């Protein structure tokens, strides 16, 4: 079991670099077997943040050797046009991963689009078949942010078996799959949400706290048991002292001294999400071609 010094920073940048190095080796192994992993990214509309996210994903894919394809549709594109593109990509055997950047314009049903993606190519892990498979412990594509959190926890603590983990937030993207992954790692799991009673007292019992509630600095020292490991998924932009700052859901300055280890914001969970997306793409390519890699770490070994 790895030991953590009091208040140790969990360096998501360093761990993500390690994951990307593993992915680069996996891509090379696949290419040597005649398979070039390919990721298709679909962007609908002109949301500035979405453009940044897509650009970063495409850049990272290029760095690890994954072929990327960008499909940009105007904001006024119809749901039928988006679904037709997804169907085309589903049928293209040279495309192994499909990512539809969210949010979509309001006139398009996000659930319908996500459900249209072939589950074997659903590198975001949002299709109901992958969601259900995760809850059953099957070998499926896992949402990238929770999978990244699991990698950070395993690198910090080693074996998670028997630890009490508290997940704050129950979103479909982070909270629920995070709880499923922790259960799969033999943790005792409590999920706290807006209707939870005695939330602080429950959280103070946790060996592991994963904060994914979307409220800046909500989790202060009153929530944390001394020696806990804290993973802060929140990314909130606030105005403070006349400056725009990124802060997490955890009040870092107050909480860090209590912890065994904690992720900073930025530089903690954030870099892991794209790294695990690349790993999901390689996993999808491997599974679709029935090949076995000799390098790197398969996603399920990270997630469960």
From TrEMBL:
Reaction equation(s) it catalyzes: (6R)-5,10-methylene-5,6,7,8-tetrahydrofolate + NADP(+) = (6R)-5,10-methenyltetrahydrofolate + NADPH; (6R)-5,10-methenyltetrahydrofolate + H2O = (6R)-10-formyltetrahydrofolate + H(+)
Record-listed E.C. numbers: 1.5.1.5, 3.5.4.9
GO cellular component: cytosol
Keyword NADP on entry: yes
Subunit structure: Homodimer.
Protein's job: Catalyzes the oxidation of 5,10-methylenetetrahydrofolate to 5,10-methenyltetrahydrofolate and then the hydrolysis of 5,10-methenyltetrahydrofolate to 10-formyltetrahydrofolate.
NCBIfam families hit by this protein: PRK10792.1 (NF008058), PRK14186.1 (NF010783), PRK14188.1 (NF010785), PRK14194.1 (NF010790)
Protein name (record): Bifunctional protein FolD
Organism listed in the record: Pseudomonas linyingensis
